[in-house]
C-alpha cells in the first residue's frame, strides 16, 4: 500500500484526461513527456500481471505498466497498434503507462480539484477528484506512482475502506 503524503502543487494546472478501461482519470501534464502508440514490448516471464513488458526507447529499457490492470479495473482489452502509451517522467524515472484512450487536455482550476484530504490520508493512488465541465475524473498521484517498483509482484493497488467510506459520504 502507498504511504500517506502531502500533495505538492504541480508546476502547471493542465491535465491530460485519459480512460483506463471505463474509469476516467487525469494526469498533470508535468509528468507526461510523450504520447506514443504502443510499440513492440519485450515480455518479462514471471512478471506481475500489470507489467505489460519492457520498451526499448532510444536505447533505454523502460518498464511499461498497464494502469488499468494495476488499478484492478475489470475489462482488459487486447492491445493493438493504436493502443496509447504515455511516456511519463518525474525527472529521475521514466515509465510507460498503457491507457485505453487519450481524451483531452484541460485546465484543472483550483476549484475543480476536490477531496484532496480524503485521498492523501488513504494511501490511494489518486491525489484528488477533478470535477470539470467534461465530468468527474480521478487525478492520479503521479509523484507517488513514479516511485513504485512495478516489477515487484507485491506492488498492487488497493483503495482502502477508509477512502471508500469518505467518498461515499462526501
UniProtKB/TrEMBL annotation:
One GO term describing the cellular component: cytosol
InterPro entries for this protein: CheW, CheW-like_dom_sf, CheW-lke_dom
Residue ranges of domain CheW-like in the record: 11-151
PROSITE patterns: CHEW (PS50851)
A Pfam short name: CheW
GO annotation terms (biological process): chemotaxis; signal transduction
Protein's recorded name: Chemotaxis protein CheW
Annotated source species: Candidatus Methylospira mobilis
